[in-house]
Specification:
This protein has eight helices and ten strands. By secondary structure, the chain is of the alpha/beta class. This is Macrolide ABC transporter ATP-binding protein.
Length: about 260
């Protein structure tokens, strides 16, 4: 039985009628069209869909890297519309860790200092941030690479540095945009093993965008996006469910989970 709305934990993300449009050469293009979605803390979710479906736009909105054109988006219960750019940046830094397909590491900087960088923006002292960065790198199996620059590491190692950077601030959520896209199958599997363990051991919500079905199948929930809308929301053990139907099979509860 689903708990009353006021008793349910605050979700990691909650979207109501979420829309994003862009002006391209004077023409309005709808990238997202009225998405209703709820992602709770501790979930492992894959967002999948064809190129141009809107999945990356959705990821950027969830990560507070962009603002919706209309609709409501709450991150950890905070309505992003109430935040100015500084507040949005603080929310990103405090609550969300990012892993990108292209790693986005500083090329002339050691792994240790790359990982410590988010803590600089929090005002954490040098010795503490370096110690926390060292522990984060140890957690992804790179204790022997602390002083190496990205050019001295393989693609898989660089992605693990990026994951350590995402973890160093103890985020509630990790957003991963095509985290295996630039990796071979072995390194891709290692990265997914780390994300799976992170979710299982620490309870951190993991939300990843991927076009690879075998990667998506490692998640316990898969949100299919097409033409800017959620086409299907399926969970392990439940089977494919239209948007708005919960894992418990309670349509009313599902409407709350997908407001």
């Amino acid at each position: 039985m689903t708990a009353p709305e006021h008793e349910r934990p605050v979700p990691a993300f909650e979207a109501v009628g979420l829309a994003r449009s862009y002006r391209l050469e004077g023409v309005s293009v709808d990238a997202l069209r009225g998405v209703d979605l709820r992602i709770d803390h501790g979930e492992f979710v894959a967002i999948i869909g064809p190129s141009g479906s809107g999945k990356s736009t959705l990821m950027h909105l969830l990560g507070c890297l962009d603002r919706p054109t209309s609709g409501i988006l709450r991150v950890n219960g905070v309505d992003v519309a109430t935040l100015d750019d500084t507040g949005l940046a603080e929310l990103r830094n405090q609550a969300i860790g990012f892993v990108f397909q292209s790693f986005h590491l500083l090329g002339r900087t050691s792994a240790l200092d790359n990982v410590a960088l988010p803590l600089v923006y929090r005002g954490v002292g040098r010795s503490e941030r370096r110690e926390r960065a060292r522990r984060a790198l140890e957690a992804v199996g790179l204790a022997h690479r602390l002083d190496h620059r990205p050019s001295q590491m393989s693609g898989g190692e660089q992605q693990r540095v990026a994951i350590a950077r995402a973890l160093v601030g103890d985020p509630k959520v990790v957003l991963a945009d095509e985290p295996t896209g630039n990796l071979d199958s072995r390194n891709g599997q290692e990265v997914m093993d780390i994300l799976t363990e992170l979710n299982a051991a620490r309870g951190v919500a993991v939300v990843l965008v991927t076009h690879e079905r075998e990667v998506a199948d490692l998640a316990r929930r898969r949100i299919h996006v097409r033409d800017g809308q959620v086409e299907l929301d399926e969970r392990d053990g439940v089977g494919g469910s239209p948007q708005g139907v919960s894992a418990q099979g309670d349509p009313a509860a599902g409407r709350r989970e997908g407001p």
